[in-house]
Design a protein that fits this description.
Elements (H helix, E strand, L loop, with lengths): L1 H35 L10 H17 L1
Amino acid sequence: MKKDQDIILKAAQEVAPYQRKPGRDNEEKQIAELVAKGKIVTRDIHKESWYDIIEILRSFIAAS
């Protein structure tokens, strides 16, 4: 069982870069289509703010 898991994990790690590129390319295509339709796309987000929100959410969930 462990050997099978190791094989699957190794395969996933090997294909990850190839899987991510089409995903990124598709995302860029979709963003370009939105911009062409006049939509505003914000790329420069403040990730730290999202991390803070996630911590608040985790605290809320833990308290409930």
